[in-house]
């Protein structure tokens, strides 16, 4: 019955969080409930009103709501105290396989960490997070999930008056690089060690048996992030706010703010309106993940070795391995996308795509149809040469192999914008349409409009954090 909440984070010392209930809203209405995810998590909503539960108006039995403390580097600048300013962890659920998941409301009202903010979210970012995080899961990318979305019936004031909403997020935990930084910056060694033990038990239990658990943990996070960022690159995903507080030690994509998918390929692509320097541009993502991991390593130093020189040497060696790990993951992703085990060939295609501004998703998806094509009609000369070389190198990779790694459809920015515009007038048809098609991103949808790049007047120039 119910959620069957466990509350292991709430058992950590008081300084890890602030006990905080969601602030009730006036007229909650359910937009969407992810029944498949609820079932997979063993959540039984029988006898509960989802609109009341997922708005925070009614606390499910066993919930011990709290806002987590964390710090972080935002765009490279240090913020010693961030924390959940508009999110509430209701509790943790255990799925059938014994794995633990956090259930968190986002947009659920002010907390002691809200600083100047209102603790709320508006409908646009809530729907974007719902659609994009679920699409990422279907695309095979490690990610937080969306369990529910509700409207609050209340206005949220940004540059304009907007409809309020709340998304319920499920994550294997909400421990971030910034959570470690929070305790390290306070020189709270006891807190740091408790956090490490928590994160090891939750994510990388074998690290507990390693000679140096903190170092083994760091290595696990480095591997997970290398894999994660390579998988982002493989689908043209730009996170947009890779701050250390948005970097989960689980290796899941977290915090879908101004995130966006590239249409035409260019490595410098950036969408976020607040990323004026292009710090988190597409091609910078591996470098920034590396930087974030160095911050994690630095926070873990006192737990790696009592001798600080030795700790630095060990941590540095681990962090340095990210570059090769990432390169190996990138190679795996992109050689699979072309079906040929030749990294130079994959890079040559990207260069050609950059030169002619080819659509990232559709160019890779089209390869499967070119395996047996008599000739390459309508291709530029440079692309033609590449295709000939590619086909000569192609071993026994089949069209089905390529289609299994090159999605036919991704959540394109202009479609997301269209969905949000519709939803603001109470029409969720496009939201449902996107959810349906994006649950099978490797299948060509009947409605082929969703696979098309934006027309010139549909191009989205910037995405907004939506805070
Ligand atoms: P984000 O950019 O969403 O990762 O948020 C960065 C920090 O700002 C976190 O501490 C958030 O909790 C906080 N924050 C963002 N939006 C709001 C808001 N509307 N009210 C209160 N805090 C917020
Ligand atoms: Mg965040």
Short description:
It contains 14 helices and twelve strands. By secondary structure, it is α+β, with helices and mostly antiparallel strands. Strands 2, 6, 7, 8, 9 and 10 form a six-stranded antiparallel beta sheet that branches. The chain has a two-stranded antiparallel sheet with strand order 1-3.
What are the defining features of this structure?
single chain; 467 residues; alpha+beta; six-stranded antiparallel beta sheet; two-stranded antiparallel ribbon; 14 helices; globular; binds adenosine monophosphate; binds magnesium ion
Walk me through what this model shows.
With 467 residues, the protein is an alpha+beta fold. It has a domain at 9-171. 40% of the residues lie in helices and 13% in strands. The strands form four sheets. Strands 2, 6, 7, 8, 9 and 10 form a six-stranded antiparallel beta sheet that branches. A hairpin with a 5-residue loop joins strand 6 (87-94) and strand 7 (100-106). Bound molecules: adenosine monophosphate (AMP) and magnesium ion (MG). Magnesium ion is lined by residues 245-246, 255.
Low-confidence stretches: none
Output the radius of gyration: 22 Å
Major sheet, described briefly? Answer: 6 strands, antiparallel
End-to-end separation: 35 Å
Using DSSP, what is the number of strands? 12
Structural class based on helices, strands and sheet pairing = alpha+beta
**Overall 3D form:** globular
* DSSP helix fraction: 40-55%
| Ligand kinds | adenosine monophosphate, magnesium ion
Note the beta-strand portion.
Answer: 5-15%
């Amino acid at each position: 019955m119910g959620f069957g909440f466990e509350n292991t984070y709430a058992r950590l010392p008081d300084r890890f969080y602030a006990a905080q209930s969601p602030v009730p809203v006036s007229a909650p209405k359910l937009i969407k409930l992810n029944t498949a995810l609820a079932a997979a998590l063993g959540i039984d909503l029988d006898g509960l009103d989802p609109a009341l539960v997922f708005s925070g108006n009614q606390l499910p039995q066993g919930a011990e709501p709290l806002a987590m403390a964390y710090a972080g580097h935002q765009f490279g600048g240090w913020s010693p105290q961030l924390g959940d300013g508009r999110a509430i962890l209701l509790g943790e659920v255990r799925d059938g396989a014994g794995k633990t998941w956090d259930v968190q409301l986002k947009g659920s009202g002010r907390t002691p960490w809200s600083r100047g903010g209102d603790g709320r979210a508006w409908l646009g970012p809530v729907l974007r997070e719902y659609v994009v995080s679920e699409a990422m899961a279907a695309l095979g990318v490690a990610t937080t999930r969306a369990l529910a979305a509700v409207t609050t019936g209340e206005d949220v004031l940004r540059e304009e008056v907007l409809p309020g909403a709340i998304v319920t997020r499920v994550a294997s935990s909400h421990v971030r690089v910034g959570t470690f930084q929070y305790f390290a910056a306070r020189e709270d060694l006891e807190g740091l060690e408790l956090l490490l033990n928590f994160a090891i038990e939750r994510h990388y239990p074998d690290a507990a048996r390693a000679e140096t658990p903190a170092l083994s943990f760091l290595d696990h996070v480095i591997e997970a992030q290398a894999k994660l960022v390579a998988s982002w690159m493989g689908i043209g995903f730009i996170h947009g706010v890779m701050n250390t507080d948005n970097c989960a030690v689980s290796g899941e994509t977290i915090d879908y703010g101004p995130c966006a998918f590239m249409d035409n390929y260019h490595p410098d692509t950036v969408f976020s309106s607040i990323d004026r320097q292009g710090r988190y541009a597409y091609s910078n993502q591996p470098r920034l993940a590396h930087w974030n991991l160095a911050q994690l390593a630095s926070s873990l130093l006192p737990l790696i070795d009592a001798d600080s020189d030795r700790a630095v040497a060990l941590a540095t060696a681990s962090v340095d391995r990210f570059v090769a790990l990432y390169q190996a993951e990138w190679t795996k992703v992109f050689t699979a996308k072309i079906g040929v085990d030749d990294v130079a060939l994959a890079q040559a295609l990207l260069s050609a795509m950059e030169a002619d501004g080819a659509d990232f998703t559709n160019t890779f998806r089209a390869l499967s149809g070119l395996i047996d094509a008599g000739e390459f009609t309508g291709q530029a000369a440079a692309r033609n040469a590449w295709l000939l070389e590619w086909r000569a190198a192609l071993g026994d990779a089949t069209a089905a192999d390529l289609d299994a790694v090159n999605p036919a459809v991704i959540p394109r920015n202009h479609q997301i914008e269209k969905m949000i515009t519709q939803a603001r007038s109470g029409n969720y048809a496009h939201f449902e349409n996107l959810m349906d098609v994006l649950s099978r991103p490797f299948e060509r949808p009947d409605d082929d409009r969703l696979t098309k790049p934006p027309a010139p007047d549909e191009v989205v120039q910037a995405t907004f954090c939506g805070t």
